[in-house]
Amino acid sequence: MKRIIKILIILTTTVAVIVIYLSIYGIKTEKFNNKIKKNVSKINKNINLSLNEVNYLLNPLNFSINILAKNPKILLKDKSLDLSDVTSNISLKSFINNQFYIDDLKISTKEIQIKDLISLTRAVEGSPQLFVLDNITKEGLISANINLTFDLDGEIKNNYQINGAIKKAKFNIFNQVKIDNLNLSFNISKNQLTLRKIETNLNSVKLKSPLIKIEKKKDIFFIDGKVVNNQQNFDISKLEPILGDLLSTIVIEKINFNSINTFSFNLNKNLKLNDLKLEANINLENFEIVKNPLNLKAFLPNYTEQVKFEDHKIKIKLTKNILDIKGEGGTYIGEELEQLSYSIINNDGKITFDTKFNIKKNPLIINFLDYKKKKEDSSEILLKGIYKKNKELIFKNISITEKNNQISIKDLLLSENFKIKDLGHVKLDYRNKNDLLNKIELKKNKSNFSIKGKSFDATQLINNSMDDDESSTIFENFNSRFDIKIDTTYINKNDYTKNLFGNFTFKENKLDKLNLESTFSNNKKMNLSIETNRQKETITKFVSNYPKPLIKRYNFIKGFEEGHMDFYSIKKDGVSDSVLVIDNFKVKEVPVFAKLLSLASLQGIADLLTGEGIRFTDFEMRYLSQKGLTTIEEMYAIGPAISILMDGYIESKKLVSLKGTLVPATTLNRSIASIPLLGKILIGEKTGEGIFGVSFKIKGSPKNLSTTVNPIKTLTPRFITRTLEKIKKN
After folding, report:
1. Which runs of consecutive H residues, i.e. helices, occur in 226-372?
2. Rounded distance, CA 68 to CA 53, Å?
């Protein structure tokens, strides 16, 4: 009995030693190499596995044998790929029965060049995709662990897994997208690739991503993932090759931000990117635009193409080439920080916007409305509209609210040069630069308009009209009729008319016809008409029994009283030929005139000018105007105290050059009285001695005029002729 027990112990110990030895050290043999190679070839029949000795280790717990091959090689024609090891597992029963059915196969690679792997794969299967991939890959290392399982027929199951890592990879995709220093780990299963812990530089922009998934359906790769950015600075222009023309109308220089981004897109078999979708939540510390399509300088004097954003919260969505941006934060206009919220949608170059400005520190100007926000007041501006590819700008709604001031404009169409091409509705209720109330409403009826209201300041319109500045027009390609009726219309800050009514018509952007009538506060009337005839001459007529409010606009004339004004002008090809006639008026102060009288030693008349004023019975001026140059052909004035004949030119805001003759009335009467027969009839027989008058010259800049005078002994025939004409007329 003891002997049996001893034998059993020896056998048990021997078996245990053998099991332990086989489990730890195994058996090295080449006996089954061909069978291992045969199973590997099931991956691809062109693959040949080079093996040396293979170690077989016993796994007693599950009655199987683990197979381990160190440093094998994959051979393919003249190419080879070094592996780290190949392991597999077979059942103990199949091994004993010499059937050798492999349940799984694990292949581990060393760090190898990505291009070598692509080259080897292309030798197995030369697809176009691999050709493109080979061309865009520049450098990098890859290592992988390949886990395969086999069914009872020895075929590879679909539950295979490949995981590994890529280090220091570099790709150049058609010279548009450059990927540098790519590091990541990956997992591959059937039709799916998962990337983790990604760090790279995309077009010199540092990116990190915790996860990106790539799924293959037929010949299309679907990619989605998440990118998280810490705060950084980079030049967004380097992303233009990726975003295409989505930012063609906006040039962005630098960004300082952090963000959380999700994205998805697909690649076809030619690796062309399609259906890019992007969602980004951005904390924008600094953002600088150096070029943008909106030119707002006419409204915001401090505005430039270079716009800076500060501390913005922004959400960006990109779907099917539609870029949707929503945000709010601080915005610099010039050097001042204002608050802005906005929604901008760029759909194939068509930009839809909805913005809200809170402007406090910057001026806001609307020249054609004579509106200016005070710097210290706060304005809320709502802008909603569309910027088209043809550079037209449609404001569906403009709303400006500042204390008790409100301006509302709807359906305003502006040209590329910010000229008005059309508008739908305007409602004004505000006080302008002159602190005058503008309360009117413009309504569109088909192609025509009506303007009605309680009060309107027309100072700006009158200034533009009398300055003859064509460039000041606010319209472009405009063809409409306006019917107007306003209770109170201001000509300047203090003077106004009542019950202004009439109409005016624009044709091809030009004022074609106008008829306006109104009554001054003293019940004196005025009438203005403008009409373009068949010869394309624009004829302007203005008649007023109360010219004082219009004369007051000229700062160099003070104390103008009484009078009757007739103005007539013909304009063609940019040249205006005008006649201004004023009868029976007096003036109290004309600084240049006073200096002229003083230099001519006519102190008595000079005293009269600054006292009660000098009366004139007739004033007539004929002049030509063209592009800022006014040429006075003749200006003649006659009165009980003095007469003047003058000509010259005035270059707007630059130079004044005038010359003429000035004659006291007593001298003039003596001169005319000396004319045989006619003088006796007109003046009488009283004569006297003395000079006839003085000649003078006035020249210099408008703010620094130089005046010179010279006594004359004889009046020119022209002066006497013009005087006689006036006397006869009277």
Report:
1. 240-243
2. 9
